[in-house]
Amino acid sequence: MAPRIAFEDFVAGQVETYGAYPVTRQEVIDYASEFDPQPFHLDDEAGRASLLGGLAASGWHSCAILMRLNCDHFITDSTSMGGPGIDEMKWLKPVFPGDILSVRREILDARPSASKPDRGIVRFRFELINQTGEVVLVQINPILFGRRAAGATQGAAHV
Amino acid sequence: MAPRIAFEDFVAGQVETYGAYPVTRQEVIDYASEFDPQPFHLDDEAGRASLLGGLAASGWHSCAILMRLNCDHFITDSTSMGGPGIDEMKWLKPVFPGDILSVRREILDARPSASKPDRGIVRFRFELINQTGEVVLVQINPILFGRRAAGATQGAAHV
């Protein structure tokens, strides 16, 4: 099945909000055990003694959750060719077990590739937001998308 | 047991290389299934048809692997208080199953906090490197560390 969303569908200034990702205690500990085994991501006591104020998710786990929410909302049904990197990322607040996370997506700009006519570059500003409305993470990054007319190939922008 | 490595141990200009993380096919698929289910991270055929040239790891998975290598080499045995964000990150090459990843760490600068005497800020440039010497990811980011003399508290820099 051909992807539904292509470069042409992204318009500068568009804002959308979506998602409701429940963060579980087990998931926080499992992720940290595998990738970021600092005490405040693994243990209640160490979390309380830290500046986080309690056992909290790895910042990389928060990024992964944002990616999953983006995939579910639009990326896996799009002509995404991947992204070359991250322009800016800030972890603003801790993410705790029990939090429910959603996304605010703003399109900063969208321009056709100067060198490759089959694709365009969309630059997003994503906020990951908890159930009390606090922005826990902000991320600005470009993603390449195939253009509808060009019948672009899917694939990440590593080359 | 008190952490061994503190702010005072990081000196601008220091370069270290470390780690040997074998990337398995199952891990690539498991991570992507949970957090980044784009076809080229899940399926050989879709990977080959993409710009990646084959089934390849999510870029967020690469970041997580870098974090794990950093934890094992120095962070979990340090006075790390976490990091406020990422200044720059580029995914330069795909990461494939079978790759063995290592890290080159350069210390860009290290300065005591102007406002909080118990901590300092170290800015790193990390390269994640595959077994053929290709840099697959580069990341520049600050991490806060407690100062030895001050007997700093562990915890992330969210406040």
From TrEMBL, chains A, B:
Tell me which InterPro entries the record gives: HotDog_dom_sf, MaoC-like_dom, MCH/BMMD
Q: Where in this chain does the record put each MaoC-like domain?
A: 14-111
Q: Which CDD domains match?
A: YdeM
Q: Which organism is it from?
A: Phreatobacter stygius
Task: Name the chain's protein.
Answer: MaoC family dehydratase
Q: Which domain of life is it from?
A: Bacteria
Q: Name one Pfam family in it.
A: MaoC_dehydratas
